[in-house]
Design goal:
The protein is α+β, with helices and mostly antiparallel strands and about 450 residues long. It is about 40% helix and about 20% strand. It has helices at about 15-25, 40-55, 55-65, 120-135, 170-180, 190-205, 220-230, 240-260, 275-285, 325-345, 345-350, 380, 410-425, and strands at about 25-30, 75-85, 85-100, 100-110, 135-140, 165-170, 290-295, 300-305, 310-320, 355-360, 370, 390-400. The relative contact order is 0.08. The mean pLDDT is about 95.
Length: about 450
Amino acid sequence: MIKKNLTKLVGLKKEDFDCFVKTGQIQVQPARLIPTLKTGDEMALTSIFLSTIHLVKEFRDSIFKELKLSRTGRFYFYTEATFPEINKSRLDGLIIVVSKGIITDAVFFEMKNKNNGLELNQIEAYLDICKKLKVEKLVTISNEFVADPSHSPLRIKTPKCIALSHFSWTYLITKGQLLLFKKDILIEDEDQIEIMREVLHYFESPVSGIKGFTQMKSGWKELSESIRAQKPLKTSDEYIEDAVLSWYEEEKDMALLLSRKLGVLVKTPAKNQDSLKKDISRVVKDNYLSGSLIVKDSVSDIKIIAEFERRMVAMSVKVIPPLNKGTIARITWIGNQLENCKKRDEAVFTKIQDYIWVEADIKYANTNLKVKLSELDTLNELSKGKDINAFHIGMIDGFGAGFASNKKFIVLIEQMMLDFYEGIVQHMSNWKRPAPKLEQGSEVI
């Protein structure tokens, strides 16, 4: 038999792929749900993850959709993919999509767990393999967080023909957990439900090597202390970019945490190089960063601001009062909403009530009226002759030295977010203008 040269994966006949496997020009192992590998090993994690995609349809659809991977045809899942004639580097995972006997799509995977971070030289080598084999997708997975799957934890130049995506393990666990909630999309097959549960049980165990976002980058502490000491800042300072990226990662981590609590996917605004430049400029000029959590069917997005100079964090939601009533009635209405929050969950409300502020958005005014919750009655006098368009219900908390701590900041802001949502946000609702009514005795002409 004449030995063929391997020049591509996408576009290759599946029977030729199998021949290349037999000759050793392609070296792969089939992904197994229960691999005969050491618990906590990265390859064991890879095998279990790829097998779960294979066996649980809704999980597969969700991942394939994000990767823009074809969902029609037959799918084959492999680990330990090597192409010795091209590059002796071993890729952790490979999925190929076959339609009418031809490989129509493919994606490579590189996995890390524990404290192992992605390595620039390694990923550059994998991108080179992608280019040579005409594979247009490479996915990295690790405990490192990014603001968006299209971003990478590495500063890396990607060829235009290749899409480099990154998932944190926490993100993938959250996607799996959401499929088990009785909301929106759920897994139909009961056996697949049990597979998903067992896999998540393993992923959430410390032995798997998976962990959440537990520490801001060192640039966060350096930026906090520089602003505190009133040192001059430059947009070119690398530690400031690290601090902003850490903020993006924590924003995403809060969204995933709230997603798992609510059973619906909480989103964050898309981030790109332009938003990174703007946020670096903002923190240099005004010493604060902002973000938001987008919760389906919530009263509004949750706005979040971190102020470095005062070392405080503010969270708020916007609430629309009855616009068909007067100012005093609108203030009474928002007071009743907040009283309802207290009745619904008194323990949490009591815990946070001293940190709650009410801000009245005044029509045509340059500044809003802002009072503590305990002083809400004073709004009646302050807003005389003014038109309130909306209220912003906010929670403001000073973190002190914890603000500059790479680990404690995460603990403090995530607990604040959960308390604010549980005590306030989930109980608030906007006024809706009633439908117009027919006048009594009106006649059809």
